[in-house]
Amino acid sequence: MKKYAQVIVDNNSIYTDNFFTYEIPDDILDQIKIGHRVLVPFGKSNKPIQGFIFDILDENEEHKNTKKIIDILDEEPLLRDVDIKIIKWMKDEYLCKFIEAIDCIYPKGYRVNTYKVIHLVNNNFTYENLRFEEKKIIDEILKHKGKISLDKLKKNIKSNIDSYIKKLREKRIIQITWESKSIKNEKYVYSLRLNIQNSEVENTIQSLNKKRSFKQAQIISFLANKEKVLLDDLIKELKVTKSSIKSLQEKDLIKIEKIDYFRKIETTYKIDEKEINLNQEQIKAVNILKSNIQNESKKPFLLHGVTGSGKTEVYIKIIQEMLSLGKDSIVLVPEISLTPQTIARFKNRFNDTIALLHSRLSDGQRQDEYKRIKQGKAKIVIGARSAIFAPCKDLGIVIIDEFHESSYKSETSPKYNTIEVAKKLCEETGSILLLGSATPSIDEYYKCEIGEYNKIELKNRANNKQMPPIEVIDMKEELNNGNKSIFSRALYEAIDNNLVNKTQTILFLNRRGYANFISCRKCSYLFKCSSCDISLTYHKYKNIAKCHYCGYEVEVPKKCPSCDSLYLKEFGIGTEKIEEEIKKYFPNARVLRMDRDTTSKKGSHEDILNKFKNGQADILIGTQMISKGLDFPNVTLVGILSADMMLNFPDFKSSEKTFQIINQVAGRAGRDLLKGRVILQTYDTEHYSIRYAKNYDYLGFYNEEIKIRKIFNYKPFNSLISVVVFGKNEKSVIKNIQKIYDAVIYVLNKKGINNFQFILGPNPCPISKINNNYRWQILFKDLDIEIKLLKGIIKYICIEKRDFLLDSDVSLSIDTDPESIL
DNA sequence: AGCACGCCGACT
DNA sequence: GTCGGCGTGCTC
């Protein structure tokens, strides 16, 4: 009986974002499964493209003209059953296309290359009657055994031949079809062994020598009495070429076996392995988790453990438990704390059972890791956000460390929230979800309060040390007392002290570059990016002004470009400036700076950390990058240079973020035997973020913040959906965002809703231009309206009716619960 | 999206 | 004629 497949095709268009029905040919009927990647003919020209099987049906009621699937592209289905569920869920949740959700899941090296080939179909033509160019085409095709790729043909015949090809086609002399090649970017090694009995070896060698196949004879004698030899070794050893090996294979004298080769990932960072001795709190935490493994319905766990309370040890113990049950674990870490140090900690413990997935892997390496997980060779996956989609076979637990980090929200469509995806994944697979943080996000902590999550607490630091005391310094006061420097007197003295005592200092400022902007003091000319609505950051070392959004750089002239005065001045501070000031005040101090500018080279990250760890520097200056996971026993002082810098951001999460980052950076001091000290400089000493952070009082902060969220209808009480229209043509952008607004109002009116308080906009985005794209947004809150209904309406207007409604010169971005609305 | 096709103006 | 540029319509 014929069967039919429901296929999602790899075509990133809204019009093809639905199931296509294909007939399954008999020869693959018994192999094909849901989740398989297949090759299907598509469109008028039957171009072969990738597709994904979402369902297999016995009948095909709706369509008459079904085409047949060409082939299956992988032995095993690329998508697991749970992947299919997640894809469907993501599509609804994040208002994205099927193919966008699918793209999150399978490694991007798997693809199909297509090209057109031109071949002779008919010999019933008189060559002599053809025109010169037509002859040339036919000659070229015949030269390549009756078939050549169109690209190659055009390259070989340099003149324009399109019209002659068309003519030949009309005369039915040639035909153009599509061909394809499946690319997997996989690496294999090959092993050789004899395919003849030992007793036959002598004879074979003799007969080969007779035919003057000396190299082949040499290979046979080399292989004799050996179990297996690697192809590469053989080639090196005997200085033979692949051709002699190939002919031996054709004569069936040897067997070649393909072996998966896994490219090694280098980790240069080494740490001394400490024996894990869990304290009472940690043991209790592990036991709670363990007792839940068999539990049918699993609530997620929120592990609230103060900095240094040993969350990682808890993770390791529960992973060990999972391993002993044969189950897989996924550990997600924010990209910036996926440091060699963190990796080494897990690697030391689990060795080769670990697969690593992060942005710095090459495509090949990522592919290898993917395969190792898929084949069950790696049972523990450590990675950033996207590792949540790792193809584990039998998942036991998902751990999201530092789950409050904003990097768990994807910035590209689909703009998924990793915690939500993980929750769905765990629900579907019956796995445990463990969210760990010292400073939980307000949203998730609220879910503990209302009983959606179980809470586990680690209240004490593993070594029972107190958190280092935080001294808050009022920089307004410093200024009043005549100190114009970026260092308060207290911080200056503390740094000086540390230099004398030969202990180390970390200075934190969440901004790279030298100064945030540069302008003319005479005419107030401001250096701005030509393609973005952003002032340029000054990088003194290179003497450039740089746009941190699009990367645009311009050399800073001596004179003001507008009024020719010499009064150009930079304002605000960045890490580069701190480095300069430190060198000015403490010329003998050895300084390292770690930010995106100094870590762009591969391995530079490791370099800086290793140097600091080995005591080759006294002071480490850095951005967010240094706020996490670093464990340096000799650091006794942490200076937070401008704690309130983030507070001025127009973002409802800025208080939360400030509180979190102070906590994290402070935790870098006094981690070992030496006593730590934190100096926090701010202009706003009375802000509640700073007040509670000073005492490491998470609950106090939470209670204050949750009240504000309630009053202003922010998360977790209300959702926010942002719709941004952007494009090069500002008028068109405005016109189109207005169309969306009008359409939403129209639909709402029809549904009897007349109060539009919950819609904000359309307005220009706070950053109104990026990369020459003008940006306008509408914000929707689910106030007095069901979130499902709201999403439905937005989906209907912005996705389903998009082409009908919107012009083609604008693009659209939808973000549910955006991390930032800039 | 991305492909094919068809129509139209420009140009040897 | 004939080249190529763009607008249109469809994808099992």
Automatic annotation (TrEMBL):
Q: Which InterPro entries match?
A: Helicase/UvrB_N, Helicase_ATP-bd, Helicase_C-like, P-loop_NTPase, PriA, PriA_3primeBD, PriA_3primeBD_sf, PriA_C
- Would the keyword Transmembrane helix turn up in this protein's UniProt record? no
Keyword annotations for this protein, in alphabetical order, are: ATP-binding, Coiled coil, DNA replication, DNA-binding, Helicase, Hydrolase, Isomerase, Metal-binding, Nucleotide-binding, Primosome, Zinc
Q: What class of enzyme is it?
A: isomerase
Provide GO CC annotations from the record. Answer: primosome complex
Residues folding into a coiled coil are: 191-251
What CDD domains does its record include? DEXHc_priA, SF2_C_priA
Cofactor stoichiometry and binding? Binds 2 zinc ions per subunit.
Which cofactors is this protein said to need? Zn(2+)
Instruction: List, in alphabetical order, the GO biological process terms annotated in this UniProt record.
Output: DNA recombination; DNA replication initiation; DNA replication, synthesis of primer; double-strand break repair
Q: Name one GO molecular function term.
A: ATP binding
Q: Where does Zn(2+) 1 bind?
A: C520, C523, C560, C563
Q: What Pfam families does the annotation carry? A: Helicase_C, PriA_3primeBD, PriA_C, ResIII, Zn_ribbon_PriA
Q: Which domain of life is it from?
A: Bacteria
Keyword ATP-binding assigned to the entry: answer is yes
Might you give the EC number(s) for this enzyme? 5.6.2.4
Any idea which positions bind Zn(2+) 2?
A: C529, C532, C547, C550
Q: Which residues belong to any copy of the Helicase ATP-binding domain?
A: 292-458
**Oligomeric and partner information:** Component of the replication restart primosome.
Would you identify the family this protein belongs to, as annotated?
Belongs to the helicase family. PriA subfamily.
> Per its database record, what is this protein's job?
Initiates the restart of stalled replication forks, which reloads the replicative helicase on sites other than the origin of replication. Recognizes and binds to abandoned replication forks and remodels them to uncover a helicase loading site. Promotes assembly of the primosome at these replication forks.
Which NCBIfam families does this chain map to? Answer: priA (TIGR00595), PRK05580.1-3 (NF004066)
Q: What name has this protein been given in UniProt?
A: Replication restart protein PriA
Q: Which gene encodes it?
A: priA
